[in-house]
Amino acid sequence: MLRETETSVDMLFSNVPGMVYRCRNDAERTMQFVSAGAEQLTGYGVDDLLDNARTSFKDLIHPDDLERVRAEVERALHAGHPYRLSYRLVSRDGSHKLVWEQGSGVRSASGALLALEGYITDITDHEADELIERDRTERLRESEREILEMISSGAAMTDVLHRVILAVEDAVPEGIGSVLIVDPDGRRLRPAAAPHLPHAFAKAVDGLPVAPLMGSCGTAAHRREPVIATDIATDPMWAAGRTFALAHDLRACWSLPVFDRAGDVVATFALYFRNPRSPSEGDLELMAQMTHIVGIAIERERSETALRRNQALLDAASRITRLGAWAVEWPRAEITWSDEIRAIHEVDEDFRPTIDRCIEFYAPEHRPTIRKAFDACVRDGTSFDVELQIITARGRRLWARAVGEAIRDASGKIVRVQGALQDISERKNAEIALRERMKELKCLYRVLELTTTGDGPADDLFDEIASVLPHSLLHKDVAVARVVYGEREHRSAGWRSPVAALRSTFAEKSSDAGFVEVGYAAEREHQRGGEGPFLREERTLVDGVALHVTRMLQERRTAETLSQSRRLQAIGELTGGVAHDFNNLLTVILGNAELLMEHLRNDASARPLAASISKGAQRGAELTQRLLAFARRQALAPKPTDVGKLISSMDELLRRALGAHVAIRYAAAEDAWPALVDPGQLENALLNLCINARDAMPDGGRLTVEVANATLDGASAERWHDVEAGDYVMICVSDTGTGIAPDDLPRVFEPFFTTKQKGKGTGLGLSMVYGFAKQSQGHVNVTSEVGRGTTVRMYLPRSADRADSQSSDDMFEARTLGGSEKVLLVEDDELVRRYASEQLAGLGYAVLEAASGPEAVELVRRHSDIDLLFTDVVMPGGMSGREVAAAALALRPTMKVLYTSGYSRDAIIHRGRLDQGVNLLSKPYRRAELARRVRSVLDQR
């Protein structure tokens, strides 16, 4: 029976035109079986072909087609598909035949490839072409069905595109397929599938611009129409990428744009060829058909991606907003919960809700509300939207918003109730905090209004602050408040000692001055995250009120200090201007009084009158000197000074001035720094302070003068205003006298202000000390208590150099004789000029006079023998004394210069100090002072 079957098979194969075969899957296509038709097809008998006895089947394939046949068979086997292809076969007599081969792999149960089986026939005649076309059409239809099934089943887009390319490559054997997808911005193309395109080339086209002359694909996407490059070597569209394409043996490229349903280009589908080639009408129809399928695959992938993204956003929104969905199928009462609903209730996944169990999750006081709302919804279709508290499975209370609506069928019957539940605890807590914050801000605004615009007494402001604070607390019905400032206490209405309180201190002069306190007069529950029964916002409120009070006290003190400083500055400007003219008059009066006293030396009745004039002029000079000191217009000559030594040298003078009823004590630190100060003016200032102290102790007392080092920090400098931080020498003068009343204390530095009886003082002593200290770049302050005494502290800048051992008296020691030198006198005041000229001439000097600066400069040009320029500093006419001196020295560099002035401002004095190398004779001056100073300057080397 078996032999009969084999005979029947052989007869069947012998009657089939062409050759039936079975061969190994090796490079030589070693034949294991061939049918009898092999001899007619190849010219070789069966025995010649079996086991490649005479020739291998590989050698019968035309050399130009061999590589393509190998590649296409391998591609089909790899994909698990039958292979179908045509090629040229070289028969034994050398003739060429066009053959058609189709076959498939033979695999074991495990999937291993065992052999190839197939059929080869001669298709050189026209009927074979029709056969090939019909077969290609059938394979394409089968491929389309498979691809559409892949799309509908949700296969990955890359797998679908890969299968499309294999189907087209099977239908067009020489073609190499590629799909490029357009970027979301529509500007570039990205590889999506190209299983057989050279990897380097596929990588190179990643990011290809959608633009003209950008190869077949870039141009097709730009033009929105098919673009056929039959020969890449000559096509202008490939100018930019021609060299790279040819290097990978690519000679032709057909590319079609792929559209979505909206008509937008989403991709390109291309076939590359290794030889120049034009498409047939069938090729273009095939590609157009496949681009449609590619468009479907891409659009489906994008839709699913968008759907997944939207679902992820919905899930994130549900999770972030704590919003869950629920539904009740009615009347079965079957309940469905979303995952977020379970998370809100803090139940496990296996929890099965019922209507009653859902109602029980609500807080007892809210259950009637939600029950009534749900029943109305399922009965009448009334929607509900309520905010209630629930108690989770773990016992936590949460605020939730419950929303529900009824769904009806076509007949209008309610078949479902559905809705949402949202955890709104954070919002509710925020609302509570916001209400408290609004009360806090309202209170702080009122406090700010009181402390910034209120100009009444501080006690009245504190009374109102205490009355406002209780209404800003959470439990205002039992809230109390108070403000304590110094020894005074300001309480809210109904004040009782609180059982719980918050307190915050406020400061004045860098130290605690009082506190603000709020509290509850009865027990209240503790607040989560707060301080006992108080919210965090209430701590902020109390601290904010204390801060406003601190700022108010500081600003009032600063305003008071600035007001006093500006008042003193204005008075100083006025007194300085008056002193200038007054000193000119005093110079004349004092000088002429001296002349009268000499002329009336033997007149016993008239000489006392001249002496009285001189004495009055001297007192006037002292007065103007104090005015200039207060106005900071003295000509100071500061030098390193041992303050302790200077005070010791004044002991005899002070004891005579103070009297025996005042005990004096000195205390100077051994390591006291030298001060940079004018020693003569410091003596005057100390003498004034000691005399003031004496007058405050009419019945006797104790005066203490101390010297110590002091370093002022930034806070102290800022508090005192117009003081720089740094090292100072402090001189403290304190007494045990009557003291100064608090209302008078801010005015003690004003000129002519005095607390003494009328006629007992000028009111210029402390003002002179104040001006001297400030002009010396220091500071002075006064503290006092009525009935206990007064302390004045003067801070003078520390000197970086050692103190000069020369005494203050030595500074003025000079020859008092006259001379014969020529002096140019420049003075705009005629009386003063006449007086000075007569005195200089009387001393033997040759005198030239000028009433203005320009006139003086002209005299210098005409006289080359002028030895000394004696000039006023402040003059009309456009030139000051300093400018006259500069012009004169430019003409006569060896000339000496002596200035005189009753009010110098900034011409020769800067920052309160006499400029280096400047000689000055202050007005008013007497004849002896004039003689000494002129001689001293002329004798300078």
Give the percentage of residues in beta strands: 15-25%
Q: Enumerate the strands of the largest sheet in spatial order, edge to edge or round the barrel.
A: 8-7-6-11-10-9
Catalogue the unreliable spans: 1-7, 759-763, 806-816
Q: Mean pLDDT, rounded to whole units? A: 80
Query: What is the structural class?
Result: alpha+beta
Counting DSSP H or I runs of 4 or more residues, the number of helices is 26
Number of strands: 34
How would you explain this protein's 3D organization?
It contains 26 helices and 34 strands. By secondary structure, the protein is of the alpha+beta class. A 6-stranded antiparallel beta sheet has the order 8-7-6-11-10-9. The protein has a 5-stranded antiparallel beta sheet with strand order 2-1-5-4-3. The chain is elongated, with a radius of gyration of 58 Å.
Summarize the structure.
The protein is an alpha+beta fold. Helix content is 42%, strand content 24%.
Topology:
Elements: H1 2-14, E1 19-23, E2 31-34, H2 38-42, H3 46-49, H4 63-79, E3 83-90, E4 96-107, E5 113-122, H5 126-152, H6 157-171, E6 176-182, E7 188-193, H7 199-204, E8 208-209, H8 215-223, E9 227-229, H9 242-247, E10 252-259, E11 265-273, H10 281-321, E12 323-329, E13 334-337, H11 339-345, H12 355-360, H13 367-380, E14 384-391, E15 397-408, E16 414-423, H14 425-453, H15 458-468, E17 479-485, E18 488-491, E19 500-508, E20 511-520, H16 536-599, H17 607-630, E21 639-641, H18 643-649, H19 651-658, E22 662-668, E23 675-677, H20 679-695, E24 701-712, H21 714-720, E25 726-735, H22 765-775, E26 779-785, E27 789-797, E28 822-826, H23 830-842, E29 846-850, H24 853-862, E30 868-872, H25 881-891, E31 896-901, E32 909-910, E33 913-914, E34 920-922, H26 927-938
Parallel strand pairs: 22-24, 28-29, 28-30, 30-31, 31-34
Antiparallel strand pairs: 1-2, 1-5, 3-4, 4-5, 6-7, 6-11, 7-8, 9-10, 10-11, 12-13, 12-16, 14-15, 15-16, 17-18, 17-20, 19-20, 21-23, 24-25, 25-27, 26-27, 32-33
Helix pairs in contact: 5-6, 5-10, 6-10, 14-15, 14-16, 16-17, 17-22, 20-22, 24-25
